[in-house]
Amino acid sequence: MSALSSTRLPEDWSVAPGALAGRVVIVTGATGGLGGETAKAAIRAGATVVITGRKVRALEKRYDELVALGGNEPVIHPLDLESATPADYAALAEGIESEFGRLDGIVHAAAHFNELTPIAMHKPDDWLRAMQVNVSAPFALTQACMPLLTRADDSAVVFVLDDPELLSRAHWGGYGVSKAAVERMAAVLHAENGRGPMRVHTLLPMPMRTALRRAAYYGENTLEKPLPTVAADAIVYLLSGAGADARGAVLDLRPIH
Known about the structure:
The chain is an alpha/beta fold. It has eight helices and eight strands; from the N terminus they run ββαβαβαβαβααβααβ. An eight-stranded parallel β-sheet has the order 1-8-7-6-5-2-3-4, sandwiched between helices. This is NAD(P)-dependent dehydrogenase (Short-subunit alcohol dehydrogenase family).
């Protein structure tokens, strides 16, 4: 049972020009499908975006794509969530404070998923990797940045979930368990910050055309699924002032049957 209530994107909402003007936002997993689209959507909405990822060349390619959009210049900060230490997260927070003097949002779009496998056959290293990237890293990054986030007039931390009904089935292993932990972490963080300037949000996307989806559904034609653009726009909603209405809730983007 979820500890968070569920909400929907307002039907009349669309990304307004300047919705994130003046805001500084970190996007993890910025070289991936959802992270990349989120960085683009945030740039279009007027934010300054700090993109993180472990592959410098892929980050540089994403940087060029973001610059071509013509908004605020993005910032590259290489960060390997599998091996990063508390000192690495502190250095990121200190760098942002030094350069911008503020931080208004974090989008935890990075995720580790290897393959569907029974727990009896689950490689321990892969289990630990899923917990590290999907749970421990978002905790450590959020904690390091909380002094900046709570100093802002209005800030948002966005955690990305996955379908809980699906992930409790066989073979979802460390990834499924980690996403349940993320939901509970968000609930605890919201309970501790429910009235302060830092808002806590969770997003439950619809099935999307991403590398993770391709890895999990071998027989599916992933190209039939929508690109992560709708989910990225929904994240802009959560990062903006309008997202206050969804504070402490799961923003559910799945189709209503």
